[in-house]
Amino acid sequence: MRISERKRLASFDIDHYVCSERAALKWKSARDTRKTLYIYGMSGYGKTSLINFMVSDQEVIYVSADTFEPEDLELEDETENITVIVDDLDKLVRNPFFEENKRRINELASFENVWLVLAGRSEVPGWLMPGYFTYNFILIDENDLGFDRREAERYLESWDVELSEDDMDDVEKKSLRYPLLCKIFAMHLKNGEEIDDEMFETAKCELWDYAWEHVYSEWPIEISDAALKLSAIEEFDSELARMIVGEAEIENLLKKIKEIGNILFIRRANGKNSYCIRPMVRESLKYHMAGRMSKDNINRLYFNIGYYYEMNDELIKAIKYYDEIGDMHQMAQVLVKNSRKNPQTANYHELRRYYLRLPYDIVVDNPELMNGLCMLQSLIMNVEESEKWYTELENYVSIHQGSERRLAKKLLFLLDITLPHRGNINLIDILKNAFTLVSARKLIMPDMAVTSGLPSQMNGGKDFCSWSKKDRELAKTIGKILSKVLGRFGNALINLALAESFFEKGEDNFEVMSLIANGRMQADAVDNIDQIFVADGILAWVYIIMEKPYEAYEIMLNLKKKCSSISDERIKRNIDTFIIRIGLYIGKIKEANEWARYASDENKEFITYDRFHYLTKVRIYIMNGRYEAAVSLLQKLLYYADVMKRTYIKIESLMLLSVVQYKMKNDSYMETFGECMELAKEYQFVRILSRDGALIKPLLDRYKGDETDEDKAYLKAVKSEVKRMAEVYPGYLKYVDDALSINDNALLILKLQAEGASNTDIAEKLGINLNTVKYHNKATYKKLGVKDKTSAVTEARKRGLI
Q1: The whole model's pTM is what?
Q2: pLDDT of residue 476
């Protein structure tokens, strides 16, 4: 067929066809402007159906890319307008005239009298990019071809299927806007089947079978074989793909897979590409893997993937693949490697279910697994189980000799220092003993982080509130010991511990800042990111107290940039949380609520490592009036504080609980607040209270305390700073909806006040009574939690209202 030989496409059955409005609009735009139209999407998105529908009453030139020859598209009349459609473009590579046809298609895009429509399964292929950029192709992709809810309803109606809102919600969610899957659902529903998980699962399997028969089986064998193997992985780079597929030229193969269909996504980060098979395709390929690969081959594939991840220290991924094939030996080896890590960087919570499934006889024969289970049970607050494994490790020492005994003794020593539930009982004596052994070269200590990735020494891996009572004395007596025992993690510890202790007790900010600067320099010298976070965290709190919240915010943003390339995800998450925490002082309400949506879910599982997130989340609950949720989380935090001997968290949790009880009009709020104040007074802590000044001021105003001179002096210091902080941050954690309900007139008045206008000027400009202006002012001040115009303007700006 030469290009001058036009034809009408075969008659099109429109009984069940619903054309996407988005696709239709783009089609018409391309047609009217004569721009080349490129339509792409997986099989089943209706590319050819769209073409049939849009040109059903027209004469066009239509060819399929796998069969046409170059002369079929020779242009005989260069003046007459024609429409040329090249379908199945992904099959062009199979055409014996591939190179000539590529050149011809690019030429046609340049002809003014030719409206070119191209359709295929992949994004614009590389060979077509010159024309794409030169002639500004219009694209119709899967987002345009897929159904929205209204279109899906119309489609089901064409099958005489009417659904309730709830059932339609299910169909919309499960069909993923995919027309072919929606069609399969419609056929089942037309036959009277009920909407349930079984029907959806059956429909999906039918779709997967269709995909194999009409898509995957058409691929070259090296591509279908590679795709089956790669479907075992959620994300992979070329190195892992090369290992799995066994193909030296893996980049070329991945390029072919990408261009043969819209199934492979590329992500670029840190200068490297990683690949993902789209979830629906991956699920279908995994479905076919079981029937097209032998069990031995699948087991070998999963073992190789697990081993690759293990060698790259991606232990969570590694153990998942070993578990798939039931390889308990390899699973145990992964858990041993995790147990060797510092508890801060180890993945105990993530690997918990694997630890707990280990057979007893395997564990008791391996001191590192006993060490791991001892630490895990402590972290999940099973104190008796933790001590049981500690005893088992002691028994191991008593019956073994040589290197095995030395290893077990070292692990016991490390547990004595690090076990969370033991607090700091006898810790000074333990550290002194460690110092003696290290100095005599009888013990080699690993680097030990003491912060658990948190911005605190006092409230980090363990609670050191009791040391704050004798901070200067302890700094002199055990400073050298800590530096020796903790290695590079101990260099900055003393300066930063003193800085935090002085800060919490409300001592001179400039002395605190001097200690922070010294500690930060020491931490920088050895690239100790844990202590750098502590230094920047304390400094940020100093700036909050000094009424410089934006400087505090900037400190954390800069630290986030510095840590962008580190592997410790726990620290990075805590930095993000600290940014949210500081943002509460400057009206970053939207960001806080967005963060809370994805924060650790305490109702699913209470993770002790996430305590900093939980205490931030409680404040957001309070800000949003979700007092019951706040109480529930605070009760969990208080239980944790008691079991794990966490004084600082207990004070903070009692303070927040008393605030919530006060807001809920619970009469026990003052009893709770009194317990909090007594505990804080024992350690002379001021800042743990004053940081939440606006929140606790109503309670503090009602609190009397004891009549001793020491108590009066402490209470005076707390009240003075709480009052100041409440005045500086009047909108802190105020219930947001009230502020956002300020009406237009009140906002206009506030804007004019921000510009310097007086009440009289505003009344004249708006043509309203002076008393009306004052009425709006009073209501606005109340909603913003302030007492005067200047504070109202400042608070409104923080909240983005003006």
Answers
A1: 0.80
A2: 84
